[in-house]
Description:
Layout: E1 4-6, E2 9-11, H1 19-22, E3 36-37, H2 39-76, H3 81-84, H4 86-115, E4 121-122, H5 123-160, H6 165-189
Amino acid sequence: YQRRVHGGFWKGPTGTMDFLLADLPDCNDALNATGCQPSSFFFAFMGCMAALVFSCLGAAYGTAKAGVGVASMGIQHEELVMRGIIPVVMAGVLGIYGLIVAVILSSGIGTFAKKYNYKGLHAYTGYAYLAAGLSCGLANLGAGMAIGIFGDAGVRAFAQNVKLFVGMILILIFAEALGLYGLIVALVMSL
């Protein structure tokens, strides 16, 4: 079909922005399968792996580092432990972000695999899934490190001065937002 420009965007035949998938060749058609490669499945599955593994690394580091601070604080101020455990919970959420992206990417890979009878996946899709997984995983790794390092110091400071609680929570929210940004970018790239 012919692409036409409408309002500065390339539009597909239905008037929507479905040109991204509409322009990709059909991997079932051997004549049009120039961009379809079996190795693209590898890159797509590596995106699933990167999202889950790096997110869980960030969550594990953040949980362990902040947990050390909570344990240290609990020795002298056991009444503050439940309020001080918030960094540990926030670090654990980062692993859930990676799980969400990995499940979405793997279900997309399965859909494409069945559509093309497991012959190949377009290179664009494989690389897009790899980039989506890396953006989510590495953003959550960085967020987990930030939550862990500040969570440890913040909980210890909170034990010394209870008035620091609100400031500690605000800083942790901004650190958690970094992981959320990676999740959003991964979801947009996986569409």
